[in-house]
Design brief:
About 60% of the residues lie in helices and about 0% in strands. The protein is mostly helical. It holds the Pfam family RhoGAP.
Length: about 250
């Protein structure tokens, strides 16, 4: 009887090895193919935004990013708030100092962030009747800017400016170096706040009162330090100076 050679089963073993090794490879190819097809069908971020599934927020957005998106140099939300206050809030006692209903302010924030169209946000709608809700939302918008209206890089320069004998001229030069969204938004805001102050006999908001409210909101250091209390004094002084010298600081000459 012929003895079987230990190599007689080699072909079948090789075939088995080949099948075994090809199994995982084949599965990996299938997974890669499916993944490639999925990625090819995946909608672009822009198309998802256009369909309204993802919206860019207004609050907490960098000023230049928001203005670029809206194709303007002043955020639409800021302009709407300013118009609403000047239309029906200049004589309201404690305007910008008195807090509005926080829940309603948050509802307005959500509407601004998630509404279909920012231009369709109507602040004359009855649900925003309380003017302190409008002013509270505007202050919240300014506080939540990732970089304040007075950029971090200019903080120390503005602090130094109020100590110079030619501080108004120096302040004007600093303002002229600001990015256009910062400059134009700042000009609109300070012009508006001057109108608020013109009605101080009825709203009891003097230059000093407005400066105290808006100083820390518009101007802050990038990192907090032990000089925080001193900075608060300087912040108010800078805002007060710019309110008093608005015409000179923002003149084109």
């Amino acid at each position: 009887m012929e003895e079987s050679s230990p190599f007689t089963k080699t072909p079948s073993l090789l075939r088995l090895g080949t099948q075994t090794s090809s199994g995982p490879d084949s599965e990996q190819r299938r997974v890669r193919t499916k993944l490639r097809r999925f990625l090819q069908r995946r909608p672009t971020l822009q198309s998802v935004k256009e369909k309204g599934y993802i919206r860019d927020n207004v609050f907490g957005c960098h000023l230049d990013t928001l203005c670029h998106r809206e194709n303007t140099t002043i955020p639409r939300f800021v302009e709407k708030c300013v118009r609403a206050v000047e239309r029906r809030g200049l004589d309201v006692d404690g305007i910008y100092r008195v807090s509005g209903n926080l829940a309603v302010i948050q509802r307005l924030r959500h509407k601004a962030d998630h509404g279909n169209k920012q231009e369709h946000l109507d602040l004359e709608d009855g649900q925003w009747e309380e003017i302190h809700v409008i002013t509270g939302a505007l202050k919240l918008f300014l506080r939540e800017l990732p970089e304040p209206l007075f950029p971090f890089s200019c903080f120390d320069k503005f602090i130094a400016a109020i100590h110079y004998s030619m501080r108004v001229s120096y302040m004007k030069d600093l303002v002229r170096t600001l990015p256009l969204p910062n400059h134009d938004t700042m000009e609109l805001l300070f012009k508006h706040l001057r109108r608020v102050i013109e009605h101080k006999d009825s709203n009891r908001m003097s230059v000093q009162s407005v400066a105290i409210v808006f100083g820390p909101t518009l101007l802050r250091p990038q990192t907090e330090s032990a000089n925080m209390t001193i900075h608060m004094v300087f912040q108010s002084q800078i805002v007060e100076l710019m309110l008093n010298e608005f015409q000179t600081v923002f003149s084109q000459s």
